[in-house]
Amino acid sequence: IKSARLITGNITNDVKAVVSTQSTGIAAVAAGAPSIGIKSKTGVVLAAEKKTKSILYDDTTITKMEMITKHCGMTYSGMGPDFRLLVRKARKIAQQYYLQFDEEIPVS
Fold first, then answer.
1. Would you list the DSSP string of 2-51?
2. Residue 72 CB contacts under 8 Å (≥ 6 apart), including other chains
3. CB 48 within 8 A of CB 34
């Protein structure tokens, strides 16, 4: 019975740790600035709000939108480091597609 209590206690602590981590992540995303994409028949409009965390940031160095290819872009709301990682991966995939098929990656 003591070992069952020990296992239950560990599981409870593990669940609390996971919930705490998820709550922290959700709070970080909620604190981010909104971004939106609007699709039409002839194109897409991307819009994002720049929200600086401190007056010490230089507004010109903060980018919320990045080009993946000439015809494909990306924006984010939430965590900047995650965005940079996804942009790097998307550019790599687009380049691999171009090298394999000799045409831009399709976006529709």
1. HHHHHHHHHHHHHHHHHHHHHHHHHHHHHTSPPEEEEE-SS-EEEEE---
2. 90, 94, 104, 105, 107
3. yes
What does the pLDDT read at residue 20?
57
> Considering only CA atoms, which of 72, 70, 100 is closest in space to residue 86?
72
Tokens 């230089």 belong to residue: 58
Q: Determine the Cα–Cα distance for residues 47 and 34; give it in Å rounded to an integer.
A: 9
Q: C-alpha angle with apex 77: 33 to 93, nearest 5 degrees?
A: 150
Report angle CA 8, 14, 15 to the nearest 5 degrees: 90
pTM of the model: 0.64
Query: From CA 89, how far away is CA 83, in angstroms rounded?
Result: 10
